[in-house]
């Protein structure tokens, strides 16, 4: 009967059978709702259940506003986190890699989105990373407006994880800082390994 075939098909094709646990991902999000929304401002017009993040631009004080964007990942630094089983700073690194690129041209960061990919969702590990991202965004007055946690057992090993992000900022056109204003011998401060620091330090 058609009904029976349909029932069999629904069992054959499911997130669970493909190795994806959407309940775990939803549980992580619900537990972190307060932490994430603490970064929100009155300019956020969406919520965590939205498919996209909506941000209302306030252009007061700008004559020629320019949007600045950056995307990056934590790179090989994830290997150090995995080796030491310490993920509390990886979220910070993901946010910093993008937000620093916004700030270095003189722009004000506005919003950030994260992307976490893994072979199997480890709720505590994911929560630690996202909490670290949210805390870093709060420190930089940046909205954590959205993100994605992708569980892909066919792409990653069970304990593999990768973290990336995307940031948007704003600056007055006449205030943009570019490489022509940076001179040889000027000092820049670092507070640890950059995300390319692992392979560079071993060469």
UniProtKB/TrEMBL annotation:
One of its GO terms (cellular component) is cytosol. Residues 66-171 form the PurM-like N-terminal domain. GO terms for molecular function: ATP binding; phosphoribosylamine-glycine ligase activity; phosphoribosylformylglycinamidine cyclo-ligase activity. Transmembrane segments: none annotated. It holds the Pfam family AIRS. Keywords: ATP-binding, Ligase, Nucleotide-binding. Pathway: Purine metabolism; IMP biosynthesis via de novo pathway; 5-amino-1-(5-phospho-D-ribosyl)imidazole from N(2)-formyl-N(1)-(5-phospho-D-ribosyl)glycinamide: step 2/2. Its EC number is 6.3.3.1. The keyword Nucleotide-binding applies. InterPro entries: PurM-like_N, PurM-like_N_sf, PurM_cligase. GO terms for biological process: 'de novo' IMP biosynthetic process; adenine biosynthetic process. PANTHER family: TRIFUNCTIONAL PURINE BIOSYNTHETIC PROTEIN ADENOSINE-3, TRIFUNCTIONAL PURINE BIOSYNTHETIC PROTEIN ADENOSINE-3-RELATED. This is phosphoribosylformylglycinamidine cyclo-ligase.
